[in-house]
Every structure is written in structure tokens, then in C-alpha cells.
Amino acid sequence: MTYSRIIPFFAAVFHFTVAAALASPNLEAWTGAVTGNESVSVLVKMDKPLNLSELKGLSQEPQQRSLQIAQALEVHLNKEVEKQAPWLKKGPAEGVEEVTPLWLVGAVRVRAKPGAIEKLLIVKGASSMTIEKSKPIHNLFDSYVTRRSADIQERVEPEEIGWGVRKIGAPEAWKLGAEGEGVVVAVLDSGVNVNHPDLQGNVWTNVGETGLDANGYDRSTNGVDDDQNGYIDDVHGWNFEENSPDISDYLGHGTQAAGIIAGQGAGGTHTGVAPKSKVMALRSCCMLGGEVAESAIWESVQYAMKQGARVVSMSVSLKHWGKPNYLHWRRASEVLNTAGIIHVNSAGNRGHGNEPYNIGAPGSNPPAWLHPLQSQEGAGLSSMITVGAVDFEDHLRPYSSVGPVTWEQVSGYQDFPYQKGQKRGLIKPDLCAPSETPSLSMDGLNYTLSFGGTSSSTPHVAGAVALLLSQNPKLTVAQVTESLQMSAVPIDGEFTNRCGAGRLDILAAVEYARRSFK
Fold first, then answer.
1. Which pTM does this prediction carry?
2. In the predicted structure, residue 288 carries a pLDDT above the cut 60
3. Cα gap 480→317, rounded to integer Å
4. Are 430 and 409 in contact (CB under 8 A)?
5. Distances (CA, A) of 430 to 142, 274, 373
6. Which residues of 500-516 are buried (b: 16+ CB within 10 A; e: fewer)?
7. Do 429 and 485 form a contact (C-beta atoms < 8 A)?
8. Top mean-pLDDT range of 18-22, 67-71, 94-98
9. Rounded-to-integer distance, Cα 290 and Cα 141, Å
10. Can you tell me whether residue 110 is helix, strand or coil?
11. In degrees, to the nearest 5, what angle opens at C-alpha 293 toward C-alphas 44 and 285?
12. What pLDDT is stored for residue 35 in this prediction?
């Protein structure tokens, strides 16, 4: 079956191709990527983004608030494009194949023939245009960081509760009633094996795509967009790499991350920090190997916002030398912060030696709350919690990327200056969590220790956030961040570029939040 997307603005779908910044009104002068009359995908940034501070009358109910913000951003972007480039609606008549609204970052992705692309170069309301290229990420297959699901020699016997879950105090937090109930965590990764025994009951379900339709067909497989959200048969999430409901995990990476968030121990080992949370499977990488299309992730976040996720867990770090779109990433985190959605992201597996660029995007975004020992030279905050990795004895893993980071060269922000070490920059990561802990094997048989790197420490924190929100759904992103950092166990000092505030202690965080935020 061929699947199509129905987006309120035009039909949409693909990502991939090559990168270059707008530098000339002549297409051939600034890209060698176009051969003959081949179509190409470009990202067009509109120059009048919606001012988030001007949004009024937002609901205090988290899911409703998120929907209101998403709708406001979408309407604003549509109006800007309608005003500046109405001819895009003519589609094939103008050589335009697909237009995808990326309202999260104030841009549109256009796939079109060279003639239409040249016409976009003179759109007055566009501040920039780039040909989309997949960006390099930390190596998902590095032998000492994180591998495909373990073979039989690497599998481990079940233990009642995984050591990482015990280390951060999750079982004690459960006894206080903090188990993640009612919290949806969007897992942006390689997909999820939603049939894994340890995830049964803990996979988010889109109720609009369940049951029988008017003709008696199963809505989950009828090839119809039953809930009219723009996605056909998106029962447990969506595949934004291939534009389909196939969220199968061929790498195991996403399933292992989901297991650390919500694995309930059906097979013998309780791997999940938040055993009553729900994981939403959003496949946004990594069939391109060591690369990822940025717009696929932004689309995934848009979906998560509209479908009720309170937490975004992303074990992906885009390398600095690959020139990720820092401007877009920070805008995305600012939107999430306004919506009350916490983004938990891996610091990456680059170790040290290339400061201030060890930590790539989007983990380089600032947090929503600045620690008292953090640099205060920032122009704006965002929803980001960046996570490093420690071992069983709370020693920093050698691959865990260290800070600081800087935004001094990013136009539009130019904050958290580093100035070649003359200033502090932004201390990162924000905190650390255990890695190389027991997690789910991709096929559902036994468990594995092969899932490492900051990829495995990140879902520990995402699960911890779910515990906090299940106790108090009204917590803001800043309050969650403060609770996690002020309760962390110090590592190598009180607040450092190695482990931020320290190693996650979710029991202490729950108690801190109870005392501090009513």
C-alpha cells in the first residue's frame, strides 16, 4: 500500500539531498546538486516568526496548551507563505511536488524542479534557503558505545530490577506513587518494537485509529486517516524517515531506549524507570546509517506536540562539523518550553578535546532553568535537558561528551560567549545518568548490556521526568529542570562541564519537587 500525508497546507513527504547556503540569485551559482531537471528538496526559512511571548489566553492544561501553540504557529506560517509565495499551491503546474510546513521552526520544506527553486530565491518574506542534506550524528555502531541488539554471547540473565534503575532511586520513588502514570514520552529514534513483551501496556495508542470504521474494517489497517490528523493508520506513532505507519525497529536502538523509559519487566528484568508511562514511537532516524535528516526530527516533534506527549526523548546528537541548523534547533526548543514539553537529549559520544564543540545539536541548547553556578550570559532559555553518562561507580564514561558550549557565533542569539576560553560559555551537560545498563533485546528474547553511550543514559532521565510529571502534571519545564539539578549527586565538583549538576537521583528529585512546587 502507498501512504500519503494530508497536511492542512499541501501534500508532503520526503527529506534528503545536499546542503549549501543561499548565496546567489542564480541556482547554478550556489549548488552543484541539481542535475538537469531533477527535483531537489530545500528548506525555506520565513523571516517573520511568530513571537511566542505574544501568545495570549493559553490554557493551563498541558495538552490543550500544546495544541493551542501548535495551531497558532501553523496558522501563522500558512499566512506568511500564502502572502509571499501563493504560487506554491499550484503544485505540479509550477514544478512543485511537495510542500511540508515546519511550523516548529518557522520554515517550509519544498521539493520541486530547479525552475521553481529559482523562483523561491526571490521570495521577499524568506530570510534564508538551504538545500536539505542529511547531517552526521554520533556513531550508532561504535563498538564501545552502542551496537545493534546483542548477539547471544552478549545477552545477560534477568535480574529483578536493572542496576541503572536502582542506582537513580526509582524503586523508592515508585513507593511514593511516582510511576509515570498518565505521561506520554515521545521516543524519537530508529522505531520501537511495540510488540515486545516488556512494553506491553506501555505503548501509546492513538484511539482515533482503533476499533472498526463505518464499513466494519479495522481502523488500524484500513488505509484511511480516520482521525483526520494528516497521518494514515498511525496507531502507535509514525515513520518520518519513510513517511509511513511502519515504526518497526530494524536497529534495536529505539526499542532499547523505550525499554529504559517504560520496560515493565515481563521477561524478568525491570528495565524501565517509569513503568506506568506510555512511549510514543516516532521513527525519525537512523536508516541513513550515521546521518539523519533534520526536518524528519522537526516533523516528529510537531506530531508529538499535537498528540499529547509531555516528554521528548532523543538519543541523537548532530556533530558540529556537520553544520546542523542551530538556529532552527533552538527555536524548536523555545517552542517546546512555551508548550510545557521537556526535551531530554543525549550529550553525544565525542568525549573531550574539541571544546566548545564536543556537544552537538540539539543538546547544545540552553536549559529552561539556569543553575546558580551556570553562566548567566544568555539571551533566552529553552526546554533542553542534556545528559551525560556515568558508570556503576559514578565515574564519567570516557566517551561522554563534555562542555562547555557556546552560541556566540549563531546569528540571532550570539550569547553564552566562550571567546577561546576567556569566558565560561554554557556549562553542559545538565546532568548525568547511568549507561550500559540492562535493556531490551530487539527480538524480545532476554536482555542486553550492549546499549551504551549517552544514548542509554538519556532515557533514564526521560523516565525520571515522567515520574515527576505523574506526581505533579502542572510542573513547568523550568521546575522539572530545577528539581533534577538541585537533587543530583555531585560528580567531580558541584557543577561542572563533565557532569553538570551531577548524577540523577529521582527519589531526591521527587522529594525536592514536592517541597518546592505545590
1. 0.91
2. no
3. 22
4. no
5. 24, 21, 12
6. bbbbbbbbbbbbbbeee
7. no
8. 67-71
9. 8
10. strand
11. 150
12. 60
